[in-house]
UniProtKB/TrEMBL annotation:
<dbReference type="InterPro" id="IPR046906">
    <property type="entry name" value="Mab-21_HhH/H2TH-like"/>
</dbReference>
<protein>
    <recommendedName>
        <fullName>Mab-21-like HhH/H2TH-like domain-containing protein</fullName>
    </recommendedName>
</protein>
<keyword id="KW-1133">Transmembrane helix</keyword>
<dbReference type="Pfam" id="PF20266">
    <property type="entry name" value="Mab-21_C"/>
</dbReference>
<keyword id="KW-0732">Signal</keyword>
<dbReference type="InterPro" id="IPR024810">
    <property type="entry name" value="MAB21L/cGLR"/>
</dbReference>
<dbReference type="GO" id="GO:0016020">
    <property type="term" value="C:membrane"/>
</dbReference>
<dbReference type="InterPro" id="IPR026250">
    <property type="entry name" value="ITPRIP-like"/>
</dbReference>
<comment type="similarity">
    <text>Belongs to the ITPRIP family.</text>
</comment>
<keyword id="KW-0472">Membrane</keyword>
<keyword id="KW-0812">Transmembrane</keyword>
<feature type="domain" description="Mab-21-like HhH/H2TH-like">
    <location>
        <begin position="137"/>
        <end position="187"/>
    </location>
</feature>
Length: 244
């Protein structure tokens, strides 16, 4: 409209798409659009602080839940995106880190179509993710270990009755990775990654990054990671002993 700032000015800094400006614009759009929905008469929308996403809470009486919408720019026709999730402190707002999250989500759907109906792979990840809270190990590290095991251990050995052994396999693989300070990225450069999930050719042929490279050059970080592993094992024992 005449007199209003252009979309280029609203969303960009110079000639680069600005993730913070994009988040601010989208949140304003959500606030206005919400009032046009019939649900707004019964639910209250509260936008939560976030500079790189749209986080909000919906509440009605005692009911309440939170949600987060992140933004992404697709790389060609692949399942690799430049995304807006939280970045390291000091990262410019015009930097959009590359993410394999969509490709990884499709890998899990690929596994679910082939796995036994009572497959325990999601249960393993849920349990270990719950036990890792407060011990300093990232959920992405656990997820990567699980994905590697899913591509190497036959899916017929992931039935419900295999849950204890597969959980121990994940812990053992994690321990070895931390001790050797090596854990390859699951998507990038992985010859076993399903061909039907589209990736850019340079990522398929790339050298797999070591997700634990920092541990090789930082003894304190390595010691802290090993301490986190033993904290995870302790937390798992507590959960199993409690019967929950």
């Amino acid at each position: 409209r005449k007199g209003e700032p252009s979309l280029l000015h609203t969303l960009c800094s110079g000639s680069y798409l600005d993730v913070q400006k994009t988040a601010q614009w989208f949140c304003r759009f959500v606030r206005v659009a919400w009032l046009l929905l019939p649900q707004s008469r019964h639910w209250r929308l509260t936008l939560l602080p976030s500079s790189r996403s749209c986080r909000f809470q919906l509440s009605k009486g005692q009911e309440s839940f939170k949600a987060e919408m992140i933004f992404g720019v697709r790389r060609g026709d692949s399942d690799i995106f430049a995304g807006s999730p939280a970045a390291e402190v000091g990262t410019p707002s015009t930097t959009w880190p590359e993410t394999c999250a969509v490709a990884e989500a499709k890998f899990f759907r690929h596994i679910s179509r082939q796995a036994p109906r009572d497959s325990c792979h999601c249960k393993c990840l849920q349990l270990l993710s719950r036990c890792r809270l407060g011990v300093g190990l990232s959920s992405y590290t656990l997820k990567t270990v699980l994905m590697h095991l899913l591509s190497s251990v036959p899916l017929t050995r992931w039935r419900g009755r295999d849950f204890p052994q597969r959980t121990m396999d994940i812990l053992e693989r994690l321990r070895c990775s931390l001790e050797t300070k090596g854990l390859q990225h699951f998507v990038i450069g992985n010859e076993r990654f399903p061909a039907e999930i589209p990736l850019p050719s340079d990522l398929r042929l790339a050298e797999p990054p070591n997700l634990l490279q920092q541990l090789a050059s930082d003894p304190d970080a390595h010691a802290k990671a090993l301490q986190g592993y033993f904290g995870l094992v302790h937390g798992l024992k507590q959960v199993l002993l409690s019967g929950h």
